[in-house]
Amino acid sequence: MHSNFISFADDGGSAFTTTREFMDIKARAYEHLLSRIEELGSEFTRLSRPAVQRLVSTEVERFVLGNNLPLNQEELRTVSDSLTKELTGFGPIEDLLQDPAVEDILINGCNSVYVSRGGKLQKVAVRFADNAHLLRIVRRILAPIGRRLDESSPMVDARLVDGGRINAIIEPLSIDGPVVSIRKFRKDPLKPSDLVALGSFDQRMHDLLEQAVKARCNILVSGGTSSGKTSLLNALASFATPSERVVTIEDTAELSLNHPHVVRLETRPGSYDGGGAVGPRELLRNTLRMRPDRIIVGEVRGAEVLEMLQAMNTGHDGSMGTIHASSPRECLYRLEMLAGFGGYQGSEASLRRQIANAIDFIIQVGRLPDGRRRVLSLTEVTGVGDAIIATQELCRLDPGEGADTERWVWTGIRAHSPRLSAVAAPPASPSLGDAFGV
């Protein structure tokens, strides 16, 4: 092997693929392949992927031998595999897209790719030849869903064919080249029992949440980005009675509910002049005419909060949603703020009464520094007192020193929701019982 080449490393990718030599050889071999494909014409489009793999291997070997390039068999195979993915898949990120352990793929220009595994970000040895190469791959991802990405439309946020989500932004809005975020979703959504096994919450909380959903309590899942809100909402929906009709509303469809009767609605962005846009508020209004038993709002982030609160207050019990907030109290403040932005005309006291009557429980979730995704607290909304929405914390997470020492500490306070009047409170924790006067 040529002395300038770097040997393979077992680091999730080949160190050889990050070298300039690899990029140069791949680019030259790609041009050779394009000439050969041009000769084949329409015949190439009918080839299966294995047939394309064989063609690429043969042509790359011919090219390498003809140009006397110093590649060993392993490096030759690496170039062939890379070019096959270039022609039939998504190039350098093909393997990441196929890896079930990868949750997010974050691309910051052609030379910087990060992935999230188990809630933790790590840089990977994946490179694009240049920003034009990266942009070509992104457009190939967008092609099946009919979305464009160019100077006239430099941002895109879309649902992928496989149910994932892509967000991309390019120059002139992005200074250092295309920035791409790909969120992947499991083909088999996690069930509540799976979340217990993963340590997201304990069996006691599982039982209480199951009863809350079956009793048609209205629930908000609150948390930050990538904290597990969607996964928890998916799991909670599986507790709903199979005979119920569930309607979901999302900006970009991410929910995959394990339920037999689900109607999925998705907002539509406007055209370049803003025309034709359909937002979550319009979808929520229409949903009320669709005979829903439950309404699930993928993320409450705008004026649709008014329609959601009205629906929860007018007979659509058992509705659920997620919201970006750092604590249950912050969640309530954010609902007030969004209602104000949505044009709420009543008094502050009236709005707080509506919120308190609509929401039964707030489940706060978070991602800990070591990547663990956990339910941090379970809080019940009990009403309004002294013009403030009253809440009571039923349990909270004590993270301990790690997964082996963490535990959920129950306050011993009984849930006051009339729907849960038959649910007994868990035994009080000695450490918190005195603090709460129970």
UniProtKB/TrEMBL annotation:
Bacterial type II secretion system protein E domain ranges (all copies): 87-363
InterPro entries: P-loop_NTPase (IPR027417), T2SS/T4SS_dom (IPR001482), T4SS_GSP_E_ATPase (IPR050921)
Gene3D superfamilies reported in the protein's UniProt record: 3.30.450.380, P-loop containing nucleotide triphosphate hydrolases
A molecular-function term among this protein's GO annotations: ATP hydrolysis activity
Family stated for the protein in its record: Belongs to the GSP E family.
Name by which UniProt lists this protein: CpaF family protein
Organism the protein comes from: Aquariibacter albus
